[in-house]
Specification:
The structure is a single chain. By secondary structure, the chain is of the alpha+beta class. It is built from 9 helices and 10 strands. It has helices at about 5-10, 15-20, 30-45, 90-150, 155-185, 195-205, 210-215, 230-245, 305-315; strands at about 50-60, 65-75, 80-90, 190-195, 220, 225-230, 255-265, 265-275, 320-325, 330-340. The strands form 3 sheets. A 5-stranded mixed sheet has the order 5-7-8-10-9. A hairpin with a 3-residue loop joins strand 9 and strand 10. Helix 8 packs antiparallel against helix 9 (about 305-315). Adenosine-5'-diphosphate binds near residues 240, 245, 274, 276 and 307.
Length: about 350
């Protein structure tokens, strides 16, 4: 060593003055010294070419450090190459950080794949179960109907009542299974295309014409955009949110629904604001879970599937759905649909 700075001396657990006059051989293992010699010879013989290398060295405490090193021949008096000039940056910590990041990214990817696989399995299960349950249920339901038709009044009153319960329950089960089947099939035949939300809204308002008229609902809406999406599913999403806004209205209050749109960063944010009965905050997440309802069927009919459909449809579009609500004052359902460029695809 002809000239040594503080940092290198420190790496050798010494001070610069103690290093000058010594060499690699005084500080490193034999194998390391041999390695350094080879690199040094290569650099020296290369003329004046800069040599960059990542190398492992053992420091004074016996720990392996990773260095990013540049070496160039040191030309004395402009003629003879007598040695080399080296500069190293200790990148051990950065490397460790990169390794940790790489491992956690890999773990995340594995977890993601497992989750996707589980999701596919669950959907297949829901599809098969609901599909296969339909047949025996159809038979049960037909025979219960036959029983009621042919044997009504032939037993006592209690038996007639039991027939009615049986029939109601099997009809309801039919409905639930139909819903489950539909849920498992969302996005199955999806076709991504340009969808005019204005037209979707008009279609839904036409389909719900009777219910809107009966409830005397007032519906206001912004000029809605054309988006890249799945038309059938979007129609169902609009329909579920509008139906709920009308269904969960306050008694003796004209139902009002305001549909607005806002462009936020790279997404469209839709909001459906009603003046209905509202939802207690603690149920804000629960209502999006399949078959979860906050009321019994005698108060408000339904099976608790609508919002889980909405969630699945929004997520199919890579968006998010959530609600903000004040019980007794109304609810606003928000959802986002990312805006995708022409060359991008929803995976
Ligand atoms: P369903 O309408 O069949 O009950 P949903 O999944 O559509 O099922 O809704 C789940 C629950 O969320 C409803 O039972 C209701 O309690 C609540 N909810 C949904 N929309 C509204 C709304 N606009 N206002 C108040 N409560 C609502």
């Amino acid at each position: 060593f002809l000239l040594v700075n503080e940092a290198l001396a420190k790496a050798y657990g010494s001070v610069p003055g103690n290093l000058v006059g010594k060499s690699d051989a005084d500080f490193h293992f034999k194998e390391e010294v041999e390695y350094f010699r080879q690199v040094e010879l290569k650099v020296i013989n290369s003329g004046n070419i800069e040599y960059n290398i990542e190398e492992n060295i053992t420091d004074s405490s016996g720990n392996t450090r990773i260095l990013s090193t540049t070496k160039i021949p040191y030309i004395s008096h402009g003629v003879d190459t007598t040695g080399l000039l080296g500069i190293s940056i200790d990148i051990t910590e950065r490397k460790k950080g990169e390794e940790t990041l790489r491992k956690s990214e890999m773990n995340l990817e594995i977890k993601n794949m497992e989750l996707e696989q589980k999701n596919v399995e669950l959907e297949q299960f829901a599809y098969i179960a609901s599909h296969d349950l339909q047949e025996p249920l159809r038979t049960t339901s037909s025979f219960v109907k036959l029983l009621q038709k042919q044997y009504h009044g032939r037993f006592d009153e209690k038996a007639d009542l039991y027939f009615t319960y049986l029939l109601e329950a099997s009809e309801r089960m039919k409905e639930l299974i139909k819903n489950l089947l539909e849920y498992s099939q969302i996005g199955n035949k999806k076709e991504l295309k340009k969808v005019d939300c204005k037209e979707i809204l008009y279609d839904v308002l036409t389909d719900l014409g009777m219910a809107i008229k009966e409830a005397e609902a007032n519906i206001e809406y912004d000029q809605l955009p054309v988006i890249e999406g799945y038309a059938t599913e979007l129609k169902q999403l609009f329909q579920n949110l509008i139906t709920n806004a009308i269904k969960f209205r306050k008694k003796e209050t004209q139902p009002k629904l305001k549909i607005t749109i806002q462009k936020i960063e790279n997404a469209w944010q839709f909001s459906f604001q009603d003046n209905g009965i509202g939802i207690p905050e603690k149920f804000n997440e629960k209502i999006f879970v399949i078959f979860q309802r906050l009321h019994n069927r005698t108060e408000y009919e339904g099976s608790g599937i609508g919002l889980s459909h909405c969630k699945k449809i929004v997520e199919l579009h890579k968006g998010k759905i959530w609600v903000k609500s004040s019980p007794g004052e109304g609810s606003t359902f928000y959802f986002t649909i990312p805006i995708i460029n022409n060359h991008e695809q929803i995976k």
